Amino acid sequence: MHITVVGAGLSGPLLAQGLRRAGIDVLVHERDEPDRPDQGYRIAIAPEGDLALRSCLPPSRYQRVLDTVGKRGSGWRVLDPQLRIVQETLVPTPPDEERTGRHLTVDRQTLRRILLDGLDVRYRAPFERYELLPGDRVRAHFGDGTSVETDLLVGADGTHSRVRPQLLPDAEIVELGQTEIFGKTRLTGEARRLAPPVALDGFCVITGPDGRFMPLAAHEFRNGGDDYLMWVVAGPSELFPAELSTMDKSDRREHAARLVADWHPSLAALVRLGDPATVGSTTIRTAKPVPHWETVPVTLLGDAAHTMVPQGTSAAVALRDAGLLCRRITERGDRPLLDSVAAYETEMLEYGFAEVARSLASASS
């Protein structure tokens, strides 16, 4: 059996690791250059994501994940623009994490490197189209001029998926009218003095009355690493220039700093200390639910299937997808592959779009 994965974010490589561990031939295609510094920062992984990592990774590689996680904070807080605490939720350590899964905070780039280690990855190879073949096979074509015939094509290529529009031409991704600029600031002595103490002890978000908001959280590696503060400046899209995505990274960083210049002065200062190489921008989107389609040898994982508002759960749901699809494929016995894929899709759509709805409701409250 041969399986082709489109997208080398988190869920695609995790699926590939699990399949490879089971002796299945798998190739990953990625449209971008390897290891770009603006492809992620500190993210939270809920227990279902941890369980998926455990199920797909060899024990030694899973231990590498645990060795590189961030220090656990005490909870999350909402602050006003002058850094006064408005709301606080403390999160105790669950009593039986070994069985129920751990709450992890990880550096996305570090986790991605671990997940990609040992895989066959073809970079600078954007997906273009596929064609269904007789015998429940599929041929995928890529922008580097190559094509591959495979038993299953998996679109794990995110919100901007190129696989989804061909598989589900009526699926809708909805812009919510919000834009964000994000980056990292090294946790130097100056940054620690400027940062709100609660940003060094978990996750916090500063919210203003006009729709602007600013998530802040430190990532301090448990076992040594380049500690940093993750920051996001977000708000109504009309506050951002139309050419934002093509602006120089330093200019984007400066625009983010100006957007919070009327808040506590330490916030703009923290942004201006950010490393320009890590600065990126995006708009906030959500997916409309789709009914289960007729299963073919093409399927979707993560944001390619169920884009959701960032509320700290999307990474875990995507990893859960990878673990579930891997399990359905590797434990199928004599069942046809497409029966296993259909079972995965049915379950994934149910919990995936339930989380889409929950994240949208949480962001709106």
TrEMBL record:
Keywords: FAD, Flavoprotein, Monooxygenase, Oxidoreductase. The keyword Ribonucleoprotein does not apply. Residues 143-331 form the FAD-binding domain. GO terms for molecular function: FAD binding; monooxygenase activity. InterPro entries: FAD-bd (IPR002938), FAD/NAD-bd_sf (IPR036188). The keyword Oxidoreductase applies. This is Monooxygenase. It comes from Actinocatenispora comari. The lineage of its organism: Bacteria, Bacillati, Actinomycetota, Actinomycetes, Micromonosporales.
